[in-house]
Structures are given as structure tokens and as C-alpha cells.
Amino acid sequence: MGDVLRVVSWNCRRASSQSPLWDYLLKRAPDVALLQEVGTIPAFVQQQFAILQRRAVQKRGGLQRFTTAVLVRGKLDSEVVLAATEDWVSKELAHFSGNLVGVRVVPDSGPPLMAISVHSPAWPLDRARVAGIDVTKVRLSQNADVWAADLLWAGLQCWLRESDRHWIVAGDFNSSPTFDEGPGGSRGNQEYLERMAGLGLVECLRRAQGVLTPTFRSSRSPAVKHQIDHLFVSAALSDNLRSCNVGPQSVVFGANLSDHLPIIAEFD
């Protein structure tokens, strides 16, 4: 890899085309941006990127007004269609195709990448959807429900088993090890991170910072302690990681850009 490759992952909190969030994003100069809860992308951003976006799904099955998106300074190639060996998983992956948006991108700076923008909702699958189905191979052992992030993990197994490509899988997973510290005990959040590591994926923010780095400010609490956003890459790509950090709370939260901090990574 010759040039520096900049990647940004960010839940945009339904930013409209008038939001100052877009100016902030462009100042980060991403080559690839994996965005969630996108309201409207302004024309001046569209002019600089090739874009794939899909509307996310609602809890009751309709489509959200916001989208999940992959942006690249370069070209979009074929879409990444997630599927699994179990038919029910493939069906649910299709149901969440607007939350798990994947495509092969060819940045002007850097090698081709398999990129997936992830928006795993804060609600699990309706148990009625999988009634009578053995879901134990997919759901976390410490959680009674199946989540979109679990489906992603199951779908990635088929892709990563024999792949030597560079992968970036990033976004809002709604999963943080700090959630396991509540009175109810562990709900499998750390287990999920271990699952992703088992696929050969490296969480860049933890790799670079050495500790959990909070990315989310809840409207119900002023404390910023949960890292529900993650940027995973394949091991070969992680070897080229130069830096990975988040945008400053004073700017992102202070200017009310989003309730999530962007994750910003650079690769040699």
C-alpha cells in the first residue's frame, strides 16, 4: 500500500443536507466513509464520492426514512450479498439488507476493499420470526435474542473463510462491553467482540488505543462510557494501521453534530 488510506465510520443521527456534520466529515478527508442513520447527503458531498445507500428496516418491517451508506473517493464495484448455510439466516440477512450495506470499493488511494457499513438496531429480531427454529448456532450464548449483528457475523463466515481480500466492517453495532456491567450481568457484548476476532477481524480502535474508547452519548445520561461503534478490518489490513481515534467530544457533542463520535482510521 503506497498512499495513506483514510476511513471514517459514523452514525450521523439522521443528518439532513443542511447539517454542519457534512463539513466536518469532509475536513477529515476520508477515502472511504461508512455511514449510518443518514438523512440526506448534500450535493457537494455527492459530487466527491461514489455512493451506495439503502434504507434501513423498521422494527415492524417497514423502511426507515434514513439510510445506511458506503461512500468512496473512487469506484464502486459489485455489492457484497451476505448469506449463510442456514436458510433462515439468509432470509433474515435479506430482511436487514438496508442495515448491512456491503460493496467492493476501489479507492483512488489504496487497494480494493470489501466494505460493509453496519447499523445493527437497538432491538432484536421479533422472536415470532424465528419461532420453532434452532437459533443457537447464531445467537450469543449469553443472550436469549438474535440481533442483526449476530446475522452479520453468521454471514461473514462464508465470505471470510476462504478470502484473502482486505475487509472493513464498521458502524453502529449497538454493542459495548460496558453493557455487561449492569445488574443483569453479561449479555454477550464481550462475547460478540471475541466472535468477530475469531473470524480474523481486528477492532482498530482497541488496537490503536489499547482500551475501550467511548463513542456514544445517551440522551438519558450525560456520562459517555459506551463504545457501541466499531471498526473491524482483516488482519492483513490491520498490519498497516497507522492510527485510529475518535472525533473530539467537545466538537462533535458540543456542536450537536451527532450523538455518536466518528471513528477515524488511517492505513499506510
Question: Helices and strands, in N-to-C order?
Answer: EHEHEEEHEEHEHEHEHEHE
Please give the radius of gyration in angstroms: 17 Å
Oligomeric state of the chains in view: single chain
Poorly predicted regions are none
Number of distinct beta strands = 12
Helix content: 10-25%
Please characterize this protein's 3D structure.
The chain has 268 residues and is an alpha+beta fold. The chain is 21% helix and 31% strand. It contains 8 helices and 12 strands. A 6-stranded mixed beta sheet has the order 3-4-2-1-12-11. Strand 7, helix 4 and strand 8 form a beta-alpha-beta unit. Helix 3 packs across helix 4. The radius of gyration is 17 Å and the shape is globular. The relative contact order is 0.17.
Write the layout of secondary structure elements.
Elements: E1 5-15, H1 21-27, E2 32-38, H2 43-46, E3 50-57, E4 63-72, E5 74-79, H3 87-95, E6 100-107, E7 113-119, H4 148-160, E8 167-172, H5 189-198, E9 201-203, H6 204-209, E10 229-234, H7 235-238, E11 241-246, H8 249-252, E12 263-267
Parallel strand pairs: 1-2, 7-8
Antiparallel strand pairs: 1-12, 2-4, 3-4, 5-6, 6-7, 8-10, 9-10, 11-12
Helix pairs in contact: 3-4
